[in-house]
């Protein structure tokens, strides 16, 4: 039965959390739950999702790599070629966001990483401005899931956004990842919301259901996000452990529907 959603949150779900469920089944489930988007999809899959009347809030594709990112100049040529294509494809299909990553540190200092990312992103950000695409870099934890990832703290990401200096480059603030790295989620969102273009959920610890088994109180967090004037999408990015995966998704959506 379809939940009665309040209409304040644009609900989305990350595709990868529901593998190996067929995409068609997830589309059907998302429609029944009143979601507006299935995200982190490449072009073939986002076209299928669009045909069903949903959108894809975050586009990805072959150039995107968590480990090998913009903080290493030797990656720039390959990334730029791939991202030009991806940004154009996403723009042609009317999608809002394209995801990118800093890459792993490999002993690159914070300062050098910022400088290298800014240089590598510059031509892509210009294209994003022309094509009305938001290029978003995801904040990930380097403690549990992504050892050595450089963009692992909000202030570093914010500094990069300011260095790039474009309205079309912002952060993807992943609540799960940032609770692990720095906590203080609501205060951080209030302080830096202008630098953030997208949000992800996930239960801490474990990245599972956002229920009583974890330490965050999501209704308060989502309320704080909405109070900043945010009108983008909220991507559910927890890995369901319940037998009925779509029931777990429904629970997450209803929990965040403030």
Description:
The protein is an alpha/beta fold and 258 residues long. Helix content is 41%, strand content 13%. It is built from nine helices and eight strands. The protein has helices at residues 23-33, 43-51, 76-92, 110-131, 154-164, 175-181, 185-192, 218-227, 245-256, and strands at 10-14, 37-39, 58-59, 97-100, 134-138, 169-174, 196-200, 233-236. It has an eight-stranded parallel β-sheet. Helix 4 (110-131) crosses helix 5 and helix 7 (185-192) runs parallel beside helix 8 (218-227). The two termini are 19 Å apart.
Concise account of the structure shown:
The chain is 41% helix and 13% strand. The protein contains nine helices and eight strands.
**Helix-strand pattern:** EHEHEHEHEHEHHEHEH
Spatial order of strands in the largest sheet: 2-1-8-7-6-5-4-3
Q: Please summarize the sheet with the most strands.
A: 8 strands, parallel
N- to C-terminal separation?
A: 19 Å
Average pLDDT score: 98
Helix count from the secondary structure assignment: 9
Total strands: the figure is 8
Unreliable stretches (pLDDT < 50, length at least 5) are none
- Spatial shape: globular
* Rounded radius of gyration (Å): 17 Å
Tell me the strand percentage band. 5-15%
Q: Indicate the structural class.
A: alpha/beta
